[in-house]
Amino acid sequence: MNLLENIREGLRSIAGNRLRTILTSLIIAIGITSLVGILTAIDGIQNSVASSFAGLGANTFSVVARQDEFRQGGRVQKQDEPISYHDAVQFKQRFPYGATITVSTVAAGGTQAKFGSKKTNPNIQLIGGDGAYIPVKGYTVQNGRNFTGNEVDYARNVAIVGSEVATTLFENKLNPINQVIRVSGIQYKVVGVLAKKGGVTGGDEDRVVLIPLDNARALAGTQRQTFNITAAVTTAADQDEIVGEARGVMRQIRRDPLGQPDSFEIQRADDLVRQTETITGYLRMGGFGIGFVTLLGASIALLNIMLVSVTERTREIGIRKSLGATPKRIRQQFLIEAIVICILGGLGGIILGLGIGNLIATLISGGTGGFVVPWGWMFLGLGVCVTVGLFAGIYPAVRASKLDPIEALRYE
């Protein structure tokens, strides 16, 4: 019996036991679904993160005051003094690289926007910014316009709302432009609507109401505010040099003593991307570990089913041996059966994993990541299927090949 005939015999055996084949393939499919699904979801989330930071540009950085305690040099440091409006204006005037700089502050972190009888959940961020806030932060005005210089300079009661706020208050039926909404007890005329941005934070960047910076300052009253500075530099100079210059300017403005740590933090867009890549790398390792454990359980189940198959087909093995089949051909047949079953289950698992993984990524990223087809993980999944088939099939195949033909023919 040649190899081709042995393959046909293995396929006929699989076709003759459809229910057992389907159930066994389903076990493998579940393991591959967990592996490919988790890794696909991670790739989709990373793509969403990359697209979220893409609009900020490679030469974008922010100067912020840390509001939580942090550990440095083995000691717990107190939170930074807030960056004052004077600090932010001084930085904007003294930074030497001709950057586009925006100064902003969060006037209210969990407020509610109202329009007539409609109102949002109390999770809206009321942000004060200037005319450069939208382009520097990577937003796009979908409807209406940005603030004019007059509106910023004279603190007009105008607002630009995020896409989720506009959808909630106006339900896509009424044009939001020139409508009057109420936020934190103040009325604002809507002059623009931001395009949907999404992101891994669950759409927080779409739940914003942007007002002129001086309006936000007036809302604070006597309370201390901290201001964020974001700079977009178009020069081709080295990013480390730019950030170093920004740190030096800010230390002078804040009067940080020589040899003491910075009283602020500089967050680079490319640093955030690298941090997310590191995190997703650990997630991949964890996802691969979970998928491996699931496949290990599936391979043990397949091993048990193949052993049952050897027992059920003992007389068939005896007949084949009496007709001249060698132990090598017997081993090949059972290995082929195990591998084919695993490949069938693997193909089904890859299809399910692609669908489930992209669905999870879409839900987490708000639909900004796009459909991901991880060819590398798909080929890895098929390779794992073949490996599982060999692992689960080798012992039953060897056991079948060692059966004594006379004893096998007597088996009932």
Automatic annotation (TrEMBL):
Indicate the segments forming the ABC3 transporter permease C-terminal domain, all copies: 290-405
Q: Where are the transmembrane segments?
A: 21-42, 285-310, 338-364, 376-398
Q: Which InterPro entries match?
A: ABC3_permease_C, MacB_PCD, Macrolide_Exporter_MacB
Q: How does it sit in the membrane?
A: Multi-pass membrane protein
* Superkingdom of the organism of origin: Bacteria
Which residue numbers delimit the MacB-like periplasmic core domain?
21-247
Q: Tell whether Cell membrane is among the UniProt keywords.
A: yes
Q: Does the keyword Chaperone apply?
A: no
Subcellular location field: Cell membrane
Q: Which UniProt keywords apply?
A: Cell membrane, Membrane, Transmembrane, Transmembrane helix
User: What PANTHER family does the record tag this protein with?
Assistant: ABC TRANSPORTER PERMEASE YTRF, MEMBRANE COMPONENT OF TRANSPORTER-RELATED
Q: Which family does it belong to?
A: Belongs to the ABC-4 integral membrane protein family.
| The protein's name in its UniProt record | ABC transporter permease
Give the source species: Spirosoma liriopis
Organism lineage reads as: Bacteria, Pseudomonadati, Bacteroidota, Cytophagia, Cytophagales
